């Protein structure tokens, strides 16, 4: 049963986060918001997109393998842990969708180095700099706890690596180049994924 619940949540989350959001963005801005150029093979952008694609496929395989009984894992705690997983999955999804909505016209999937979008620093972005990715990570952990399999565990690990690569090696350099001191000041105040953690302290002038 948990496998079916996890599968439904995963598909609904994908549909809302990518399908529905792209349609809304297209209607409001004349553009889907997708920037899917992978960059040069072996580049940070290329690795980020590859890892995200693998994580998404494994995320789908997680509940499917739970349903068919392949690679199931046993986690101590039983129903309590499964309940925590359900709460985390829903909380992560809510955070992700709220952050996407708060981004408005600045919402993108991927980065176009030649594009300049408005920097969003209010709402959930006043607490963490990457609430969309924070929500994705929390939701992935929740789905693993709800329907633990080798595939769902691997999906979570690959997703966490993909997020680190995308944020640290692709998005943060782009934001520093696009917004300069405004982004540096923001990064010094606000944590990367968790409030107050991962802030980038500015060096005092010499």
UniProtKB/TrEMBL annotation:
Keyword Transferase carried by entry: yes
UniProt keywords, alphabetically: Membrane, Methyltransferase, Transferase, Transmembrane, Transmembrane helix
GO BP of this protein: methylation
InterPro entries xref list: Metal_cation-efflux_comp, Phopholipid_MeTrfase
Alphabetized Pfam families for the sequence: PEMT (PF04191)
A single cellular component GO annotation: endomembrane system
Transmembrane residue ranges: 6-26, 46-67, 73-93, 137-163
Coiled coil regions in record: none
Subcellular location per the Swiss-Prot or TrEMBL entry: Endomembrane system
Topology of the protein relative to the lipid bilayer: Multi-pass membrane protein
Gene Ontology molecular functions: methyltransferase activity
Protein name (database record): Isoprenylcysteine carboxyl methyltransferase
Lineage: Bacteria, Bacillati, Actinomycetota, Actinomycetes, Propionibacteriales
């Amino acid at each position: 049963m948990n496998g079916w619940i996890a599968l439904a949540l995963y598909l609904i989350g994908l549909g809302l986060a990518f399908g529905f959001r792209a349609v809304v963005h297209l209607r409001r801005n004349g553009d889907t918001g997708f920037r899917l150029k992978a960059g040069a093979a072996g580049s940070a952008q290329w690795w980020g997109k590859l890892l995200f694609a693998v994580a998404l496929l494994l995320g789908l395989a997680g509940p499917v393998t739970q349903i068919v009984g392949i690679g199931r894992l046993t986690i101590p705690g039983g129903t309590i842990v499964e309940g925590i997983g359900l709460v985390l999955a829903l909380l992560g999804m809510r955070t992700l969708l709220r952050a996407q909505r708060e981004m408005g016209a600045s919402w993108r999937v991927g980065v176009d180095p030649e594009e300049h979008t408005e920097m969003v620093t209010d709402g959930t972005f006043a607490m963490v700099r990457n609430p969309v990715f924070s929500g994705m990570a929390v939701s992935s952990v929740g789905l693993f706890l709800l329907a633990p399999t080798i595939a769902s565990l691997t999906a979570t690990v690959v997703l966490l690596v993909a997020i680190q690569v995308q944020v640290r090696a692709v998005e943060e350099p782009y934001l520093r180049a696009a917004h300069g001191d405004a982004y540096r000041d923001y990064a010094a105040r606000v944590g990367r994924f968790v409030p107050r953690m991962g802030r980038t302290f500015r060096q005092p002038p010499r």
